[in-house]
Amino acid sequence: MTYETIAEQLKELYDRSWDSFGMLVLEFPAENIQAIATRLKEKMGFDMFLDLTAVDYPERDPRFEVVYHFYGSKHDLRLRLKTLVPETDPTVATLTGLYGSARFMEREAHEMYGINFSGNDDLRPILLYEGFEGYPLRKDYPIDMEQPIVEYRK
Amino acid sequence: MAMMEFITTRKDELVGWVRKFSIFPYPFVTACCGMEFMAVASTLYDTDRFGAALPRFTPRQADLLMVVGTISHKEAPIIKKVYDQMCEPKWVMAFGACATSGGFYRNYTVLQGVDKIIPVDIYVPGCPPRPEMVIDAIMKLQDQISRDRHPIFPFEEQTPAKL
């Protein structure tokens, strides 16, 4: 199992691929995520789902880029998947049916960027506190905005 | 009359002396400054020399609230409640840069200084502060405590005597 065989087996599901410091990166359209993840988990032995984050490019039209990291413990290979998500409908299918750790990571991506995960009905905030408004890791959230819970003195 | 003033200033001195050498700190430790607090409380730099050795990890029994480490907005109601639970007389020490003014964090989570929600008596800058700075802060706080007035007679309110 090498990066060439992985790229070969997923050939029809992704758009382009490149190499990033020795790790394979695949970019794919957003609707293929469950198909790719199922194939990675069952056939190619990627049994660990490491990370799910997003990147905000406000000057570009598909504004968000959702990034997934996978790791296979049997063959010690890492893989990064990227997908572009527009701002008008930031929805990606959920991976909670396949990987349990996706539950918390999708909650974090939802509360920080506002990305919806269809199929996951438990998208409560995980790190932010109640009453927090806005999505803080977007680039248009002002850095010195404070939303205090307790009233300030004086 | 001067005799009464002599007695009341000595009384203030006595109460101040008693209070300043028996401080019970409550180290409300949240972050890395806690390591430095442990270093101050240990044997090389000792707070026991100043009477401030025995930490009481409950606000009901403590009189110095040491806010050690970063306070986030989520933590702010907790520390306000802890401060409200302490009985008079009480003092607050803002230990470290994060408790003084938010430290090097300027983002959506960190409270920019614990003095936005509770009154602070002494600030200790540093990230983390040297133990000698903390001891200096305790000594300055002891000076503040000993200079407090404790008026019990009506004439004491009018004459701000200096010790």
Q: What does this protein look like?
A:
By secondary structure, chain A is of the alpha/beta class. Chain A has 3 helices and 7 strands; from the N terminus they run H-E-E-H-E-E-E-E-H-E. Chain A has a domain at 3-93: NADH:ubiquinone oxidoreductase Nqo5 subunit (Beta Polymerase, domain 2, 2-Layer Sandwich), CATH 3.30.460. In chain A, the strands form 2 sheets. Chain A has a 5-stranded mixed β-sheet. Chain A has a two-stranded parallel sheet with strand order 6-7. In chain A, strand 1 (16-20) and strand 2 (23-27) form a beta hairpin. The longest helix of chain A is centred in the last third of the chain and has 12 residues, at 102-113. Chain A starts with a helix and ends in a 36-residue tail after the last strand. By secondary structure, chain B is α/β, with parallel strands linked by helices. Chain B has a single domain (24-157), classed as Rossmann fold (3-Layer(aba) Sandwich). Chain B has 5 helices and 4 strands. Chain B has helices at 2-20, 33-41, 76-85, 97-101, 131-146, and strands at residues 25-29, 64-68, 91-95, 122-124. In chain B, strand 2 (64-68), helix 3 (76-85) and strand 3 (91-95) form a beta-alpha-beta unit. In chain B, helix 1 (2-20) packs antiparallel against helix 5 and helix 2 (33-41) packs across helix 5 (131-146). Chain B is globular, with a radius of gyration of 17 Å. The mean pLDDT of chain B is 88. Classes of the chains: A alpha/beta (154), B alpha/beta (163). The A-B interface holds A 129, 132, 136, 141, 143-153 and B 73-74, 76-77, 80, 106-108, 111-112, 115-119.
